[in-house]
Amino acid sequence: MVRKRSVEDSSVMPKSENRQCRSTQLSTRDLKKGPKASITSPPPKSQAAKFNARVLKKLQAAVDNNPDINLMTQMPTNYTSRLIEFQGEDREESKEISEKSETTKRHNGDIRDCLQASDPVDIVWPLSSAILGLLEETSHIVEPLPDGLPQRLLNLMQTSEVLWKSPFPERMMVFKSDAGVVVKAMRHVDDDTEYTTLQYLECHKPDIPAPRPLGYVRMSGITLMFQTYKPSTTLATVWPRLENHQKASIRDQLSSIMSDLRSIPYTDGSALGGVAGEGCKDIRRHLGRVRSRFGALPNLKNSYSRAIILAVKSSLS
What is the pLDDT of residue 35? Predict the structure, then answer.
């Protein structure tokens, strides 16, 4: 009488089939452990780890061949020096990866990450009442002004809306702190020309549509320039959709503004360049700034100097 083989009867199941069944059961149990038990690829091995793995493989082969063997005779004679060498390569590789990661982080970063409440605030130009009011509103817990200025400035910047990022946002960004207030944050900038120009326009040409200066401070190597803000659309955005007469109107408005600016009299003897004596600047490669009567470099062989002086002499003749 032939007995039919049952699935439950593992005693008559072929060994290969039995092993396959047990393997499947183990996999099923592992999957039932939840998402944490999901199969993940192991982390890449370092050069030192790969070297040790090769040595262990060689030792295991020697033991399999002769269980009584003296393993010291199978160790590489320069094992320690080679391991140290591989470990050094791993450290260098890890350092390179870390530096690349840090560079990427900085490139995609936020200039506000550099602000520290423990750093002092250098007030270059006084903060307006509008900015002081915003600082007072940032917190009822922080120490009041002026002692609490660093922390309140940090709080204000952290809650401000990002309006614009430069290609390197860790160097320059623009934020909206209030409906009518923006702050331009710049790293390692010691040139006040933009701010003094806004001050000059507010005083001498208030009809020209330019932002009004609201304060200028430095903190943690970051310059914060506060000014008024009016929501608008850039000319580059709307220009393709404008009719010819609209473009002509914009041209005429800009011409009127430039004529108004040129009507400002030149004070004899004053340096050209910034209105506060900042001098002319050459930023074709890097910032070159010299304060002299013509605001240019005293070396007339310099092409930039010659161009500036010739233009000045031509306009004054």
Answer: 46
